[in-house]
Design brief:
Structural class: alpha+beta
Distance between the termini: 7 Å
CATH topology of the largest domain: Diaminopimelate Epimerase, Chain A, domain 1
Oligomer: single chain
Number of helices: 6
Strand content: 35-45%
Number of strands: 21
Number of domains: 2
Amino acid sequence: MTQRKIPAVFMRGGSSKGLFFRAEDLPADRDAWHRIFIDAMGSPDSYGRQLNGMGGGVSSLSKAVVISKSKHDGVDIDYDFYQVDITSTVVDISATCGNLSSAVGPFAVDAGLFPAQGGTTPVRIRSVNTGKDYIAHVPTADGRFNESGGFVIPGVSGTGSKIRLDYLDPGGATTGRLLPTGNVIDVLSLPGDGDFEVSLVDASTASVIVAADRLGLDGTETVDALEADTDLMDRLDALRRLAAVKMGLAETPADAALGNPRVAIVAAPRPYRTLSGEAVGSDDAHVAARITSMGQVHRVLPLTGAMCLAVACRITGTVSQRFAGEVDGELLLANPSGVLPVNADVIQEDGLWTAKAVTVYRTARALMEGSVLVPA
């Protein structure tokens, strides 16, 4: 069968990788996009490796992005995100990707969709999946993205230029409310497993936050150990699906999307070693976290999940805030790959909590450009 070529760039953004497309290079019929992304990634793959495509067998490497000039006043670029499942033909659009959001500005500049402006180019970007805006401060030189720099992020070898991302008004990105139930603590009941105190928070993405000790964990577990515990993974998915109903994201647990909400397991920091073998002490972070994504445990933290967790740590009485306490400045989140700093601006007025902004820093790099081949 003859294959067809579609212009694309394979990029790393933060601790994720994905295929980046210009909207004008894809068919006018958007219903055809999902099939293209599935074929390009090599899904479905019952072996879980995506060897017949560009995917890497984990959720953070099975993603597609579509970029276009924005149709919205005051916004420069529209960013559509597609999470491609590994073992099925599901393409999830219920959430966005915070890590790949760091590569959107660089792609837009290099693709000629937005002009570079001196040494740093601010690009206002609309996440189409959530309807929320963020500003990417893109390092530029000679009219292009300048990826060279000395900044290091957890989970990524090497260095790059520092990309600042300011997420504006991130509350209610999925449900319309920062606290979808109006409560800082809710109770979810699993048959045969009892009640779970959780915090249901929606900032950049929807999350259900649960204490590690309620699951028999201490927050230092490795990704492999967590994923090997099939009973635990089933419990987490059941909690996630109950939370989706409670947050108004699904009518029944079976209807819950694969990508939303996510589960954040939190604990007080303890000494542990990262995936690279680096030692992290209990005083190096404010909260220890492990976050699920598309049925897997993320090797770092999904950035939207990390931003949501940071916002939750600023809301008095949530499960995560109980561990974090009162923190001035950046919140430090211990994860399997190291410590991730996140700054969350959250206020309470007249009894209502509002997330004004979240700021994070990432690196990005274009890895290959040309055409991706998919079956005709």
